[in-house]
Each structure stands twice: as structure tokens, then as C-alpha cells.
Amino acid sequence: MNYKIDNLQYCNWSRKVFQINREAELDAVHVTVVYHEDYDEFLDRVKEWDNHFKENSDLIFLGKNFKDIERARKENKTAIFFGFQNCSPIEDDIGLIEKVHEKGCRFMQLTYNNQSLLATGCYEKTDSGVTNFGKEAIKEMNRLGIVVDMSHSAEKSTFDAIDLSKKPIAITHANPNFWHKALRNKSNDLLKALASSNGMLGLSLYAHHLKDSTNCKLESFCEMAARTVDIMGINNVGIGSDLCLNQPDTVVEWMRNGTWTKTKNYGEGSKNKPGFPQQPDWFLDARGFKNLETGLKNIGFNSEDTHKILGNNWYNFYKGIN
User: Fold this and answer.
1) Could you tell me if 6 and 239 are in contact, meaning their C-beta atoms sit under 8 angstroms apart?
2) Within 13 Å of residue 259, how many CA atoms lie on the same side as its CB?
3) Per-residue pLDDT tens over the stretch 45-101
4) pLDDT above 90 covers what percent of the chain?
5) Does residue 261 carry a pLDDT above 90?
6) Mean pLDDT for the stretch of residues 117-140
7) Mean pLDDT for all residues in the chain
8) 13-40 burial by CB neighbour count: b if 16+ within 10 A, else e?
9) CATH no. for residue 190?
10) What is the DSSP letter of 209?
């Protein structure tokens, strides 16, 4: 069975977006439910998703484990897996990790760009690594089955997370920095350590993470994927598109600023570039998975390895979450 999984989207959710994901034949999508929200605000997001599930039950349902990916394929639906791009919903209370898991959370970043109570973000000048609270949080996440996500984290913190976690971690949406020097893209040494621990990298299609941004060529992206596989092995690379379909530009400012600053347009690639960047024309939305399949095969991947990147590797990773 060949699965298709996009392991990161943050769209302006609507029936139209869910239909696009079905047209793309996505069996599962890891969706960002929270950026800067506290626990009570997270519960509000859950209520919004409850309405999405009720109103679009023919297209989507809440996923809890890998068996739901199998169910989605059988029912021609998309399993939605909840994730956080920050640790803000657990506030300073380790007991809330179990509470968010009960509500469906299966991925949580330890930090979003800045220093958090758990770890250091990629925009801080000093990376002090995973904190004492972070060490305890990782233990609890391992126990419950919440994946440690280090997509927006600094390098030492990410190495720490790999060493501390008893289960493989993920970098759900980033690219290698040998290809493009965005602060959030990852070093070769880090990618090797991630792969050695059976962790996963989701290659991002967000323009600020791409060489030549919106003008990135499909061939360039697929060549990068091939070089990344050379570093990490074929079983540790997938897709985490970071699609933000139909979001207003005010949302990207909120993503960057949260509630911690009044300075606008803070963030990678954002200086003098307010708003969301345009997607490359070969990946305007999830239906671009078809172009990825063609592009990966054209640069030399066989069918089996192409489908590993497009979803089977994530499916196997999900087997180890619970």
C-alpha cells in the first residue's frame, strides 16, 4: 500500500481545502492547531475542529494513530492529526501534556523560533539547549505518544532532544541548509544525527525555505531531496509542506509576532516582505504531490523510494508514536 501524507499544513480550513486534500489523495495531514495559544485557547481551537469534523464527515476525521491512516485510505477520507508549533498550551504545567494528548495532540514543537520554557528557538543568539522543564516534558511526551518536533528549534536544543528522547523525534517542516541558508533549515550533522535515531525530516514547500523562493524549480527541489536522502537514508525523509492556503496576511504577522512583541514582520525571510510568500507554480496546493511524484522519478528515484518520500515513511513513523 502506498500512502500519501503531508506532515504539516496550516491552512484557513474550509470544505474547499479539505476537498483539495482529497483530490490530492492525501491519507493523512498533520495540521497546526496552535501557535501561541494557551490551554484555554487551545480548547477553543478543538471546538472549531469539532465543527469541521461534523460538517465535513465525508472528507475528514480526527486521527489518533497509524490505524487511522489505514482507515482513511479504505474510506477515501483524510485523517487529521493535531499538532502544536509551540509549547504554549502546556503553559508551565506538566500535567497539561496529558490533557492535550487526550484532546488529540500528537506532535508538539518545543519552541517556535524564540526561547521557550522547554528549549531554544532558531532565532536566539544563544542556544542553551533543552531546559529542565523540557527534559521532563520530553519524558512525558514519550510516555503518552506525542512526537517531539524541533522544526523551529536551534541546533544544540535539537541535538539535545534527539539524545533525550527515548522515541524518534521529527523535524516536520524544514529543509537542509546546504541548499538554502534559512535560519530554520538544518545542518548536515544534525540531519545525520536525526536519521541515526530513526527520526524523520519533512521537506518544506514554504517559499522562504526554498532556494530561489517562489521561483524555485521542481528539479532543484527534487535534486535537494536526493542529496538529503544521501545524507539521511531513504527511510527518514518525507514531506511537510507547510502550506498556508487562503490565510490572510495578518495571520503571518501573528505567527511571527505572537504576543511577545509589537514589532511587525519579524521572522525568516520577512524583512521588507510582509505577508505570505507565493507558492511555486508546481506546488500551489496539495495537488502538487503529483508534480513531486513526477519530479522525484525524473531525477532517478524508483517507484518504491518515491512513494516512501511521499507518505510511506511517515506512515511507518506513525506506527511508533503510540
Assistant:
1) yes
2) 6
3) 999 999 999 999 999 999 999 999 999 999 999 999 999 999 999 999 999 999 999
4) 88
5) no
6) 96
7) 94
8) beeebbebbbebbbbbbbbbbbbbbebe
9) 3.20.20.140
10) G
| Total domain count, the chain | 1
CA geometry: angle 69, 75, 81, nearest 5 deg: 35
Rounded Cα–Cα distance for residues 161 and 21 (Å):
32
Query: Which residue range is the domain that position 21 belongs to?
Result: 5-318
pLDDT at position 251: 77
Helix, strand, coil % in the chain, rounded to nearest 5: 45, 15, 45
Interatomic CA distance for residues 275 and 207, integer angstroms: 12
Which residues touch 26 (CB under 8 Å, ≥6 apart)? 4, 5, 6, 78, 286, 289
CA distance 223 to 220: 5
What's the grid cell of residue 237?
Answer: 525523509
Closest by CA to 94, choosing from 108, 80, 81, 73, is 108
